[in-house]
Amino acid sequence: MGNKTKHPKNENSLKDSKKAKNKFSGQASLPDTALKQYFSDPEIFSELLSGCMGFEKPIEPTQLREENTNLSEVFLVANELKGVQLYPDVAMSVVDEHASYTVAMYILQLQTNPDPTMPMRVRLTTDLILSRQLKEIITRNLHALKKIQEERSTQDKQAQPPTASEGETSWGTNPKVKDLFPTKGEFLARFRYTDKLNPVIPLVFYVGKEAWTKNRSLQDMMYDGAPEQLIPTSPFLLIDLVHMNEADLTKYPADLQKVFRAVQNYYAVDEDRILHSTQISDVFKGLSDRDLVAVFAMLGRADFSEIVTDIRQRRGSNMSIFDEVIQKVIQTEYGDELKAKDEANKQTTAFAVIETCRLNGISEDTILSTIQKVCGLNQEKAQDYMRLYGI
Length: 391
Hints:
The protein is built from 18 helices and 7 strands.
């Protein structure tokens, strides 16, 4: 196939293609996506918890359930519905292996710089998750109450569905309702003292050079002299990798220790000398392809893809895990809107995908499959675009 890249024909398509190219080059997105993908692996996440939480009995990967990280909630404020959306990087629930109920939820934020607003971010995310749990319990209790009321209506075919005031009276007159809600306060709230929320435990995984010493709780964000006993702290567990001491490092399982030590070793010597010399085999010795990608994602370098591509060539590995990261970035950034695009826009998108994959050293087979998935094309049409743009 030819080497010369052909651009979309009309002027508007050309402008769109440049925008798409900039969007898909995704240098900032690649490390972030790679790191999210890495810690979303139940095996890796369980090792992280083992080290930072200090459990006597490790949490098994089979006990972890990945949760949706698109947290949205709607609240009624001044007679208007207001929406709130938050996006933790990784969310995992621990499920009891015998009783199959949720024990706790862990939310993980990935940071390469200290965030002065993190206590507030953690507070909002935690409150949103707890609010969702509360709604689920109240809904479940309402269904149980409705069932009792329907049974009563069946017994008396003339009975009408109870109004709110009749419902309140039924707490004192219907023994089954009183069994469900032992006190009137529980009945009115539709929440019982025996109902429990699952704790939400915020973790912040930080890999920056600068020590994170400030704004570790909401108290740190308040003015001096504020009554501490009345201020919610909203602390988070900070995993400060670069500044982690040996005692804390050894708490992590051996495989994750290798990854963490590689990051620390990287900062301990001249970075360029490591990347462009045979020392790379010593500093990153014993790391799998997946772990190696995670290390450079943690370092958050702007030339992330070039580094990993270079290492891939040195090691003689196809590093399919990196290809998967590239493909996921493309699909995430452009998403479902592509399905509705017309032919001209599909052409522009195909060009953007090809250029992105080409920049990141992705194989032609992966480019072909990515164009098919992202643009919704069959193999023949995708091959036409590849020939059109010089592959």
